[in-house]
Amino acid sequence: MTDSKYFTTTKKGEIFELKAELNSDKKEKKKEAVKKVIASMTVGKDVSALFPDVVNCMQTDNLELKKLVYLYLMNYAKSQPDMAIMAVNTFVKDCEDPNPLIRALAVRTMGCIRVDKITEYLCEPLRKCLKDEDPYVRKTAAVCVAKLHDINAQLVEDQGFLDTLKDLISDSNPMVVANAVAALSEIAESHPNSNLLDLNPQSINKLLTALNECTEWGQIFILDCLANYTPRDDRESQSICERVTPRLSHANSAVVLSAVKVLMKFMEMLPKDLDYYGTLLKKLAPPLVTLLSAEPELQYVALRNINLIVQKRPEILKHEMKVFFVKYNDPIYVKLEKLDIMIRLASQANIAQVLAELKEYATEVDVDFVRKAVRAIGRCAIKVEQSAERCVSTLLDLIQTKVNYVVQEAIVVIKDIFRKYPNKYESVIATLCENLDSLDEPEARAAMIWIVGEYAERIDNADELLESFLEGFHDESTQVQLQLLTAIVKLFLKKPTETQELVQQVLSLATQDSDNPDLRDRGYIYWRLLSTDPVAAKEVVLAEKPLISEETDLIEPTLLEELICHIGTLASVYHKPPSAFVEGSRGVMHKRLPARTGSGEGTECPDVGNAAGGSAPEAAPSIIPSQGDLLGDLLNLDLPAVLLPLMGAGFGAAPAVMPASLNAPVGGGLGDLFDLGGGVGMPMGAYIPPKTVWLPAMKAKGLEISGTFARRAGVIQMELVLTNKAMSVMTDFAIQFNRNSFGLAPAGPLQVLTPLGPNQTIEVSLPLSTVGPVMKMDPLNNLQVAVKNNIDVFYFSCQYPISMLFVEDGKMERQVFLATWKDIPNDNESQFQIQDCHLNSEAASNKLQGSNIFTIAKRTVEGQDMLYMSIKLSNGIWVLAELKVQAGNPNYTISLKCRAPEVSQCVFQCYEAVLKN
Amino acid sequence: MIGGLFIYNHKGEVLISRVYRDDIGRNAVDAFRVNVIHARQQVRSPVTNIARTSFFHVKRSNIWLAAVTKQNVNAAMVFEFLYKMCDVMTAYFGKISEENIKNNFVLIYELLDEILDFGYPQNSETGALKTFITQTGIKSQSKEEQSQITSQVTGQIGWRREGIKYRRNELFLDVLESVNLLMSPQGQVLSAHVSGRVVMKSYLSGMPECKFGMNDKIVIDKQGKGGATEEAAGKRSGHQSIAIDDCTFHQCVRLSKFDAERSISFIPPDGECELMRYRTTKDIILPFRVIPLVREVGRTKLEVKVVIKSNFKPSLLAQKIEVRIPTPLNTSGVQVICMKGKAKYKASENAIVWKIKRMAGMKESQISAEIELLPTNDKKKWARPPISMNFEVPFAPSGLKVRYLKVFEPKLNYSDHDVIKWVRYIGRSGIYETRC
């Protein structure tokens, strides 16, 4: 006889029949009936009417029947609170039973009955069970405290159960310890500030001992609890790590992942030059790889976590690319995750293999997967420059397949490749244009339009192509409309004669017939620009684009840190903080990685992560004028009346005010506007060192030259003062530079037009360019100059401040900054002290910005301001800096990171010069 | 923690529903059915979030097991628990099927009550559970028995009870390896690894302390330094050591001891257990090499030739060899010629399946096929899935050798010599694919 028959009772009057059976005298019949009731309950039938009859069966010595009745009670007690009281006596009695299994069962079930009146009766039995001689009862009672806390937190505190629970952490039985830890961790989560767990070196030691002895599940509870602890110093951190690492060999993947979490967190505190740090990094890789041979669901969890780990510490898995290759039979969710990690691990060393794989994937069946594979090829091209060419040819091969979604995806990524490597792969445009008709997805259409607009001068029929899109303008998605508008304006600026009509058409479509405010705004701005000052328009629309970063979908650093603290949990699977998907107070507490406690030498990249991601938003307004300020300035300006309706009276009226002819420039209003744009970025002028004598008269037959360098409006100027201290007139001045480190060269002749008489002085400024021949000098900023006049040729050398070479677009994207900072090896970091500087961090930041040293983020740690800055040199070298300013301490610490570390010394000198003047 | 656990049949009808937490309502049962089981699309993730409730599911044949929670639980633990749950059910009543679940639903509720308390997994070792959760109802136990049960369930050696006695002490070790390969059409190994398991079946009396040794490179190298005599002994026995990338152990193995000394010591559970899993990637013996040749003859014909070569000692025999050659979807007919074994075109599986019962080492065999195709106007190219292979060989492709398994039982009077030990090596194909 089997139990399945209980599922098939659907007769009428069933409840009535069951009632009769439940009250039967025969034990067997009773048991049968209870089983039927449970079966009905499972399929969702309401059998609550039988409550009193079922409870009557409770007093039995048959354990199986007892368990079934308890199961029923747990389900229906809440709906029949008064009846549930009937059961209390039996529970209390069972808690005294000589059989520990029954005592535990009673206390376990009682905790699940969520009726207030019952909880009062629960306290006494629970107190006894917490001190039971049998460990099985104690471990059950420990969990019961958590249950009770969930129903009535106050009661648990009043009854002092929390203290008893804390005592259980020192229990002799490891399973009791594990359950007590689990219960306390859960209770602590709803009291974020209470020091319930009271983790200190002693209690941690106890946990670590229990870790070796308890079940796999218990090990998980303990490891998850350990992860909340913050060791006092690096030594403690190391000793905990040493005792946790053996868990990496556990067969249970959850134990392994929780151990990885503890290690990843505590590693933050270890000094990087420690041998143990390297050992630990090496130990982490194999277990992570092993997780990939688990069942697919666990592989998925593991891969989502590996994705985080790879972002945080790429070095761990950098040699393990092959294990992430997709297998034909992997479930789709595993495939997609593997692909993500492959891209993150792609580097010059393994790119050939990766590309070969991606090409295979692009021919698979699953559409999402194929798209992602194509996209991945594009990302490889952007990430690894050496591979770009191969990637492009692979993409072209794929376009030839004519599979619709492959083509579209390929076009989207080719657009990004064009952005990254301008003027390199335009030969493929023709192929792309062939596929114009097959594009039906907005993203692909927008990408294609962008390409046509960007390279309008090379595509003969660009106007026809764009016009063809214009026909269905209003049916396109906003993305496509915006792109089309910009592309046609670009086209007009490049080929103004043939496309005037087209541009008029698109402008009116965008401004008059569209309801989309973004589109209208952009339309008006172009219209105004074109009508007032086509030159400015050209500068704006055809401006050089900022570089696109390699890693586009990096998780924001603060979030990444938090997620690292949640390795193994749902948060790490969703890549969202727990607050995003957990209701109520539980788990909303934000976790953070511990900071290094060693002396303040050299900051680690994770700290920068904090800075850029975390506190920067608050700090930003004080450093960089926000958009609001800019707009304020704009409106305060005394602009010509034409502009006012545009800004004030709303957009509807604007076209009427506009001059009909597009080419008629109106006043200087807009010009001012754009000059202002440049000006706002520079609240203070750039630092100009005082003039010094470069060539004394003694050495140059009476010609004395003193001078300095300045950077004005983006142009480097050499400002010279020539004094004639000789008796005769000097004429025919000319100047020449020797080859130098940054290719400085005069951009024009030395403008000394009138002869220089005796005792006369003339000031000239000579614009310099940076496209001259290059030769490395020592010191780096040394410049050898030859000046000629009618008397002789004289040579001198001078040193220019390297800040002259800091260009105006040296403000790095925050994400790029982070990636770059991590990317540059630590060996390239150099550190300097600036003594006796009495500026606060804000003033310093403003002052530095004047010299094109841009503050990207700021954060404050224990009264110490950390400023993160970027500088771009005229030859494209980026210098990243971290400036530590402590209130009241006149000594600044500055760390510089650069791919060409030679420049660091010069850059430091600039800092010193700028800050002290 | 886990808020509830549901088991559904393939239609989405609930077979078992157990709620552990108050935040999970009855509607959660329906939410999963509607959004996952009845969803039109293929399941895109084993974790689904529906209205702030997270569902973890695994499928066994056509049965769905789903764990539900509203909190930030340890996701890896939930899946490990679901697998464990399947193991426990299988150990109790065999295959997980709708019928078996319905037949044993009372038992399942009882198990769920025991192994999951307020959503926290508790001891779930079948050996321990079987001592007090039985299908026949609990017999009355003596006081000693009761306390023995509880101490086993909570104890340090939760996987073994005391007082086991056998007339003959015997143990069986199986080294089971699956060798995985992905090869390019040109014969270049794209990736290869062996994932192996050491399965131990022991019938030993008392609480035997065991020590397991194998030709792990790290151990051998360490011993090599120890003294010249041992080194000589190592050479004499001809053991080659292997580099193990990573290994994991059954919970009975003392991990801290392994970490410190790399020695594997444990008290085994009674009966069968998986002592260890390991993974190697270096110096793998690939038992077979597949050489594919696919030629498209016009638009309606394909010619396929596949050669397989066995690469191991001629005295050994491989068994159950099966080569699966995928064919395009628009295949209309296939002619196959093979020198050895039997080959058949299976239209329903879109593949030619070539089976060979036995094959000795250092041999080769080949198959050639002509595939007729129906003309299609499908733009999509045929994806050319890889040729896959199955086989079984009587050696360990990783090169792993068991060096010893010593048994000490200080309390009982039997010694290591009295234990009868059997060791067996089986190498099977995992995912063994060659692209074509």
Write a structural description.
- The complex is a heterodimer of chains A (917) and B (436).
- In chain A, the strands form three sheets. A five-stranded antiparallel β-sheet of chain A has the order 1-2-3-6-5, with no helix packed on it.
- Chain A has 917 residues and is α+β, with helices and mostly antiparallel strands.
- In chain A, 45% of the residues are buried.
- Chain B is of the alpha+beta class.
- In chain B, the strands form five sheets. In chain B, strands 11-13-9-8-23-21-16-19-18 form a nine-stranded mixed β-sheet, with no helix packed on it.
- In chain B, helix 7 (217-226) packs across helix 8 (228-236).
- The interface between A and B is large, with 113 and 103 residues.
- Chain B: Its main location: membrane.
- Chain B: One of its GO terms (cellular component) is clathrin adaptor complex.
- Chain B: This is Adaptor related protein complex 2 subunit mu 1.
- Chain B: It is a peripheral membrane protein.
